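Reposting from the mailing list since nobody answered there.

I have sequence plus structure tokens for a pair of proteins and want to know whether others read the tokens the same way I do. The first protein:
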Amino acid sequence: MTHNSLIYQLWLNSLVLLCFLQSNAVKRDIVFLLDGSDNTRDGFQEIKLFVKSIVESLSVSESQDRVSVVQFADKTEVNFDLNSHKAKNDTLNAIDNLRHKGGRRLNVGAALQFVRHSVFTSSTGSRRLEGVPQILILLTSKPSTDSVRGPAFALKEHEIVSVGIGVGNANLSELEMIAFKPGFTYKVTDFSMLRSIQSQLGATLNMNKDTEETLNGISDLRDIVFLLDGSDESRNGLPAIREFIRRTAEELDIEEDKVRVAVVQYSDDPKIYFNLKTHRSKKAIIYAVRSLRHKGGRPRNTGAALQFVQDHVFTASSGSRRLEGVPQILFLLTGGKSSDDVSGAALSLKQIGVLSFAIGMKNAKQEELQKIAFSSRFVFNLPVFGELLSIQPEIAAFVKAEIQTEPPTVVGKKDIVFLLDGSDVTRSDFPAMKNFVKRVVDALNVGENKDHVSVVQYSRDPQTDFSLNTYTEKQDVVAAVQQLNHKGGSLLNTGAALDYVRNNAFAESSGSRYQEGVPQILILLSGGRSQDDVASAAAALKRDKVVPFCVGTRNADILEQQMIAHNPSYAFSVMRFDNVGSIYPQLVSLVKRVPRQQPRLKAQNVSAVQAESIQRDIVFLLDSSDEMQNDFRAMLGFVERMVEKLNVDEDKDRVSVVQYSREPNVEFSLNTFQTKQKDDVLDAVRGLRHKGGYPHNIGAALQYVRDYIFTSDSGSRLHEGVPQILILLSGGRSEDDIRTPVRMLKEMGVISIAIGTTDADTLELQTISHEPNYAFSINDYEELPTAKQDLPAENHIAFVSTSFVFVADSKKQDVVFLIDGSYDSRNGFEEIRGFIGKIVESLNLDENRDRVAVVQYNRDATANFYLNSYSSKNDVLNSIGTMRHKFGRPLNIGKALDFVRDSVFAASVGGRRAESVPQYLYLFSGGRSGDDVRGPAQSLKENGIKTFSIGTKNADTLEMQTISFTPAHYFHVTNFNNLQSIHPSVEATLRGVKETTEFPTVIDVLYINIKSADIVFLLDGSNDMRASERQILDFVREIVKQIEIGPSKVQVALTQYSTEPTTDFLLNTYSQKDDVLSHLSNVNLKGGTSLNTGVALDYVKNSVFSASSGSRAQQGVPQILILLSGRKSGDDVSGAVDRLRNAGIILYSIGLNNADRLEIEQLAHSPQAKYFIKEISDFPLVREQLLSTITSHKDTVTPGVDKVAVVQYSNNAELSFNLNTYNTRDDVLKHVASLQPKGGRPQNIGAALQFVKDKVLVSNAGGRRHEGAKQILVMLAGGRSRDSPRGPARMLKAAGVVTFAIGSRMANSAEMQVISSDPNYAYSVPDFVNLSRIQQSLMSQLTQMGVEEETKEGKNLDYLKNY
């Protein structure tokens, strides 16, 4: 050995030793989560001394113990992060300087969730991913005001060790729930006693290595296989290999239910030394490895060995738990190049999810190792066997680290039938189709006992080119595909072709192996829409367990493709078959993941005899978010008992189960189990695993079950008149909007029953349920087993089970009116009294029914009467009639909201929240609040109080929307004299009818204030609309009546269309309203059999919205198109819609009769610009909503008009006001002048940029990118970002957003360059006081942009401020 190599070896050994010592040094990440509520103000000094005494006992440094301190009350605030201080003295000084946070409420659950998401993270210094123990020390002085169950469980799931310390009135059972394990809780009577537990807590923290392993919780499960080169060439390497395995095994938690290990040697052939279930202890493994003998032999067939471990070791019979989701890890140790090909076997291992490490020594080839390894990071190429030990620590660290695995896949035999569109339409595409089939076949493992392939072509009728049992060799299949001739034919009968392949191609006589459980897969390539029905044929395929994939060109009907496909994600769309390569990898991956099926017999045709018993399709929608982990078994128990009571059979009751959290996941569909297979359903329910995830998106889940479960393809019998029943089990409030999916489910006749815990929102449950009394509230899902009372059973629901402790009674309501008693409302007070009186008239007032209270406010709030003051309607009305205006200023809405929460909705004065009675607050405001409303408004929502706000033109829109339960619960009136116009909507809200799901912004009914617009009505005049002709024309006439017609005001045009469009009158035809109405009274629908909406849209753009026809687009007048359509267009509409948007024309789409929902949504300018009319009574409501939207629509691009939004950010981003909040410069400046700093740390600029892209520069928030408006972001930063802004900045640039970045001296200049769209758009100032220095330059660039755009589209400016 040379001198240099000796030095290198010594250095390497020293480095390994140093790494070993460092890895074994005590390291902990410790977070103190301190009660900062008003309750701890007097004891805060004692708390600080206690924390300091604990820190004194730690070894604080960057490489050892790290410390963070967080305070919480109603909100959570980081005092310093784990990486803020690197020395003990700095940490102690920071603790000395802590200031008490303050706050009335104590939201422990929210605080636990906060530290998990925002403190125990890599960006803030956590080393959890390095295996460093994560410790949370919680100190609290009273019970939590929110639920701790879910967040506490999530901490344990993330292996964060929580220690609970309670002082005074702290809830010990709550602390025990939070604590990592029993014994990790401490309770003292007062703050001075904290020092008495110091030594106990110190002993808990100062643990040896064994204890740390205990803290880290249950060891991760692993199945590990060592595949060793036993050829003659590697004989000298055996000692190093044995030591490598021994050391790795020493560090693993080897037990039957934890880590399992196998060893295989190979040369010309492989040999199992011991498999995964041979040894059940670490000691046995190490002993077996020590006695390992070299196999010997030549040549070295690594490819065959890889295939062997897949077929014989990574199998359940050998002890593999791959199908249970346990990570499968392979370590290949080889001394040279393989004598056979490794590519196929290596790819096959990757496809079943095995994480392969390729460790080469001596003569191993790098390219071969890279083929074998799961990732390039898993390749090691060492010069000699002896260096194996140098990489052992890194290998062991990986094995012990958290491994994310995909769901297990099953690879084996498959029967695959290609069904090719052979009609005339695909003649030119046929070579591309054949090439695609050949590519897919190339990726398969074709063989006699492996994959079988068949090809069928079809047009009017189908024909088999070759069957599943025709060829057993891949080259023969490929050659047969190459020789295919295009079939030809004018018609495309996809339904008949699907029936043909089910009965013939997937028949046993054609080579199908369905009786052996071999997956049956259909790949359909289609170039057009079917001329026959596909629904029944597709459903029959799925009943026979055939898994269809669909690939369609732009001429194919995507909805038809999704109907045929196994699920919608198995339907692919390409422009032409030349582009099919773009979806090839995804399709092949999905095909290979189709699991093996249970051996079965073909489903027999079931006779259509009506069953004697009740028929029902029942879907259980289960909350499986992180918070519901502990309740999940109880939920399954409930489902199980329900199923026990059902008569499960194809012609009787059908059952489906779907789990949801962030997104839904179907466990089984309504047609999965049939023919009296109740036991199969019960087994499936018992075998369900908790999905997990965050947050609760109930709206998305409801939309999913509507679109994909209550469908014929999934077994729904809706069109046969079978009742459709949805049972929702929820553990929390939805994070997304539920209103539209709820309405759509009700429209299709689904009966929804909603069951929620106390953390669920009662009003939300009632909104979801078919009727409010179908909503049930329980304390805990553990109560479900005791349930005995049946749910409502009239007509649709003749089943089930359960009674609950608290049942929300829809016949009871607590209603509080909070009235502006300041000078702002004095002129409208009589109207407010009359409005409230009218609402009260409609209520059922009684001590055990509805209760009412009235409160007035200005500087402070005063109750006129409470909820329990009166028990008769006459007494309430008399009191309202004699009520006097309070008078005074200022207007403190925040204070008033707190007052009604604490003093009016209270049980002592008649509030019935504890009985789950719905509680409503109606706020009337004639001006802007003089105090902060955000905290009180949030508190009302947390208490389940549903707030509706009614504001005049002097009220602040954003403030009203903030107070309201959702922004849609805000009603605007010009002044209180117009209150009566909103009475029907408010009354409907209280009665729980349809208007509760979608509240129109209120308008002045007598006259609509549209100053100037060009409005074109485009009516579907086809024969299908004749039955609705009178209602359609009345709809147009009523809109015209409510707008002011004139050359300088609103102009109107009318066009009809079917096959071709026809203009009834143009924008400049009439200048008087009477003339327009006179013409409309003589209009009849034109008739016609076909409907070409795309042609009609292009026609109105080019011939009606033109200057010669009266369009005033060049003068900046808004261009509005109102389309009424009754069915899906016969031509393509997408191009025409884009052309309208590019021209700045705002399109409102209204669907009637058989209109296609997706097309109506595609046509609409924005999600809020689409409407559906299902029955005659909907016309007035849609008209009101449409006029309201047009009147208040702030998204319409007015040429030369700029829009402004402001966002503040620190650790998260917060919207101050949106692009569509204000229409005038004065309003914007007024709001900017009143802005208060958001506060918070650290600065996450990346997250803020992402927020702006996703939430601000979007159409539903006022963004006008699709209308050509320039998108501009001005970002101000006072320091360096804690997260990376690179990705979000790149995405903003890709979206065409022009970003200016302004940084103070503490900001990172390189970061500013990355964020800005151009280096010239990055500015630097010493501090923000000096912003005026760059103002002129910035304004010059903004002005120049406006000139370049000729100021015709306007600009969207978003200001992102760091506070």
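The second protein, same order (residues first, tokens after):
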Amino acid sequence: MDNFDKVLIRLFTSYLLVWCCLLVQPAQADDCSDYVNKATINEIYDLGSETWVEVRLLEPLDSSVYENWSLRLCAKNNNAGCHDYSLSFGEILYQEIYPDWIRVNVNSADVNLQKNGGMDIVLRDQGGQAVDYLSVNDYHAQSTNCLSFKYPTATGQLHSSPKGIYRDPDGKGPWVELGSPGANGEPTEGYDNDDQSGPIELVAYYALEGDVTDSSGNGHTGTSQGTVTYGRAKVCDGVYLAGSGFLQVPDNDDFDIADELTVMAWVHPDSLSVAGHDNLYSFLSKDTNYEFHVQSNGSIMWWWGSGSLTTSAGLIQPGVWQHVAFVYSRAAGQMRIYLNGSQVASRPFSASLPLNSDPFYIGSDKATGGGEMSGRRFYGAIDEVRVYSGALSTSQISDLMNQADPCALPAPLAEWRFDECNYTAAGALAVDTQGSHAAVAQGGVASEASGKVGRAAELDQSTESFITGNDVPMNGDWSVSTWFRMPFTNVDGSRYHVLGAMAGGGHDLLWLDSRNNYRWGGWANSSIATGSFRFGTLADGWHHLVLLGQGGTTLLYVDGSYRDQVPLQAQGNLHYLGTSFEISGGEEGFRAPLDEFIVFDEVLDQTQIDSLYQLQSQGRNLDGSLRAEIFCGTTIDHFEIIHDGSALTCAAEAVTVRACTDADCNSLYTDPVTITLSPSGWVGGDVQTLNGGSGVFRLRHTTPGSVTLAATGNPSAAQSQQCVNSGGSASCDLVFHEAGFLFEVPDHTACTTEADITIAAVRADATGEHCIGDYSFANTTRQVNFWSDYQQPASGTQALQINGSTINGASPGTPVDLVFDSQAESSLDIRYDDAGRLNLSAYFAGSGDEAGLVMTGSDSFIVAPERLRVAATTDGTTPLDNNSFSGAPFWAAGEDFFVEVAGVCSDGTVTENFSADTTLTAMAPFTPATGILGTLTGGPLSAVDYSSGLALVDDISYSEVGTVTIGAEVLNYLGSDLDVTGNSDPVGRFTPHHFLASPNTPQFGTACNSGGFTYLGQSFDYVMAPVITVTAQNLQNGVTQNYAGDWWKLSSGTLSGKSYDAATGSIDVSQVPAGDPSVTELGGGVGLLTFSAGSGLRMDRGAFMAPYDADISLEINVVDGDAIAATSNPVRFGEASAGNGISFDNGKEMRWGRLILNNAYGSELLDLAMPLRAEYYNGTAFVLNSDDNCTSLDLTQLSLNNGVTQVTANIPIAVGTGSSSASLLSPLLVGDANLRFSAPGDDGFIDVTVDLSSLDWLRFDWDGDGSHDDDPKGRATFGIFRGRPNVIYLRETYR
């Protein structure tokens, strides 16, 4: 057994182990995809020797979305296990008719539709989540956690062993067994299963754009006969016929359709009453096979050699475009006529239509006996003629009828498709397809692969936008069309999201207010107008937006429908795309992806808006063509061929081919590449597939001599191939010898010994095709020289060791004694304490009797590090290794830090020659364990980042709070199939970068609500308490959901700078509780700070002050225990300036008040009123506070004293020999307590004191000591009348 056989056995054993693992590994469970019920598994069938699975898109999805999906098939009794198939390898069989059906060719062993068999399939999205599931015969090898499938996911028990199964109706209905195959032995794939019995093919398609070209690709082009004209028709141009001409297509077997037929066209008759006409206005005809007419009474007639079908009269009207379609299915036994998408006539028929060799006429019919019948010529226009060899469904006819008309659209002033691959370079442009108005990217705009049509511009920050180099004039009527994607996820910057603006300011196309559910409005001449439509009501995903500016009004259309208008129109020169000239509370960027931004210098009508919406929804350009696929990934720089320089004629020589993406081949092109190798003689053929960027192929050449190696590929390389041979030179010549040494050094791990490598002395047998032992070496000890060459990298410091001896790095090498056995075989032990690709050469020169004998041999091999060592630091040296939820070091989520990766041996020795493209990922274990794994951003490392086996990068960031493990991975190192991986110790701890603090709108309660005022010194509280919603965020403003539990560091004790302030006066906050505000953690990185007024706030009551409005602010610094702060610190409620303070629920006026009690005098026989009133200082004097209907007094607050006894006013008091009782109103009425004493019947007095200890804001300095701390007092006197006031002079005049 030679060494090559041993390698094969090892490979087979490895593969067997892999398959065993696949068989015993439990099926993975999938959760629901966001695309559930948007796509389904539709059909499984055999077609000849091939097996297909068909997927149907139930909603339009861009190919960039579904091409990353896959099908996983598991079949009963398939010992090979389950297999995955990518939809990127699927095909759309009929792009024009069925763009939503993708079929994938699968291995027949993965399908089991036998009666006693079974299988299941999961359709998975790019994230591995289930889009749809199918179980056949109740077979479940896979499971899914998804419970949201709308359509059936099982077939029931099969009753036979069908050629296929399908949903009926397509995409949605239950699973049924496929019946008999069609005429060609094909199942019902590619069309409505319930309608047809064979595949539908487009026979001919005449768009009639100036001639009779067949656009189906089948070559059935016709000619114009007589006089015809072409002009604007239903879809772009069509043919106009006036009785003097027609169109004719030569006969072809493709037009001879007997059993399944659809023919359709748009017709526009000018007249159905032409004098001398035959009464049949023929618009399409294959004579006896099928011909279609409009009769003079407006009916539609379908005639063939053995029958006819005619509609009712009056359906076709002159002067109107109408769509007619004719469908025949022999299998269904039905003929149907459709007008404008609706069936208008039908009849049973189940025979084959007669065939003929006549031409196909458009606008006329064949005459009896041959030639064209001029008496049946059509008068009018015809457009969009299609002929199919199958019966289309109603929905398919409707789809074709409703296709967009690209010619309905005017030429744009500017058209930015945003299809550029990136905008990262300084001055990066969004190209104007119309050629004049390229726009420069601003503020870090990203390019997004999945646009609505092609790519899109990702404007997710308020500072991101485009600015035109040459402004677009928009001074008259205009239309603007674009696509944007909901939702708006970023609220940085201004509350206003602006779509675009004119140079110089004052004119915005459209703004959206984030504080009002994204309500829209306009801005023109520095005036604002607000619409009623709110963009926040739109579903997530792409939406089409059209603005029409005309006559001082702007109209809004969304997704093709009119929504709203505002009475102003922006005018000027469009300069800003995705932002505004103005800055109101921050940058006014649009903050959503934009695509297909188009400006027209006229107002589009509804038809044009519909066409634009439909075209772009289908991924088409304005001219109706499909947008070409945009390639933004890496391309192949060159192909690298690695070989030994020498080979044997008796053995297939291994040659490595790599697809390199850079000149030094540090990175590989990993997509599949079809390569053509030369010279001929490659095992498996000269055309091979290169997967993963590298492959080993074997060349058999039985003639001694030199050959030149070459490789070309599809996709092709930008540069010429490069070769690396055993000496490290660039020669592509490979020399074949008849005798030499045959050995293969396996790729292996550094710093380990690869033992028992067989080296055989061989020569070609008589045929020259097989190697046999060179028995002159049998049972001998020979001194063979060995040397090694560095191939990649091209130099190094470590030497290769063979059988314990260090060998030279160049010819003639180092002699090593080898003992050959009876088969002329010996063995080698090889060790290399570094990494890279090397070439080992062997050389023997005979002497004496063997003089002239030269034996050579060589082999390239790869040595990889045992693992990758990964470490994170804050600055390149300080470890970021805190595995706890507290203490240092800590680092802000989203901030860049350093990561070092090194290739090492098992003992930690660095392999200095190692370099490779290295992927970094966040992985478990991570903390908090109950949280989520964040995203690692930065990298990947490229091979050029490594120096002496180490790579240090400084642009790595982690999106979450906690700790994380960083994994490093190199796949297929140098094409060896050796993967080198490694993990870091826990990296962290990570904290939020900042807090987003979102204050609510609090409100105070007016103390005297009915009066709209509050007394100075009177307590007032919140009716809506201030609350700050605190959201922990990373540098990129993403929520750090792991900021919770032990990782939550925000408390009332960490907050600072809390302060109340007022524009006028000062605030007494002595009743606010300690520890205010309270902090509540809600989880997911979110918490609440809730403020309290405690027993109430009060405006200080000092010297007399005129009434004023209390404009109060509250502010605080939101800071946690790690000093992580809110970006908006201090977070403020209201402003301490006139009119801007925290609001009151019914007035914020503050009054300096008092309660006054006046003496009273009166008869002992009458009730006595004693004035007790509320007053306030109006800036000049104290006046009655007639607004006070709020102050409440109880009789127990009044102390009564008659000079002998003292009681509270709720108890009668003696006055002389009688007694008096007090009464009052509570609360006050118009500021008056209406205090009264009942008539006592005898003389006396009552001294009254009002206790205002609970209403101290109404006390006054009655004793003049400078302190407003006195209760009001007064005397009620009974039995005397109040004397006349003092009179100095009195004069009376009498007549």
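Reply #1 (J.P.):
I read it the same way you do. The mean pLDDT is 89.
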